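Q: Structure for this?
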Amino acid sequence: GIQVEQSPPDLILQEGANSTLRCNFSDSVNNLQWFHQNPWGQLINLFYIPSGTKQNGRLSATTVATERYSLLYISSSQTTDSGVYFCAVSTSGTYKYIFGTGTRLKVLA
Amino acid sequence: NAGVTQTPKFRVLKTGQSMTLLCAQDMNHEYMYWYRQDPGMGLRLIHYSVGEGTTAKGEVPDGYNVSRLKKQNFLLGLESAAPSQTSVYFCASSKRFEQYFGPGTRLTVT
């Protein structure tokens, strides 16, 4: 089955710094989502981005489906950005999403 | 709108006991999913449903059963709980492919 790898596994930033999180996948995908799991465990939908680029405030995401990767950019990070960031993918004709193991982000004040 | 809700939030079971987790959504979504999350890991799909009356197996279906008798509800059952089923269980729903998650149920099996 499809493999999803996220990097880096852990990241520590000072408040105000920028960061790039990467999601690589081993096969063609038709659907891709980015989620933020906050320290209380809630999963928050950030982007549905099977291809192209989207922006929402300080966050933006780019998926290059032909090269099998997606990037999540966080600019001017805040302590509230702390948590785990997951990407999840599914292949054509299926609703079975496969999650990566996540990037754990800690933003220091 | 409440979005996706899960009942209960916490539960402790003894090995061999049974229980049902309830997921409800008020967004009129066709698709619903049950995942489990183990410490330090991503989510793994247990079962999913593409519409009322339909269910299908995901990545880790063994030991679980599901039912979708009403469009807005998706039930996850454990017939005979085992310690390996200690986990956080998340429900999600989607209109098509963009999933929205509930707050989770923390289950401990002793």
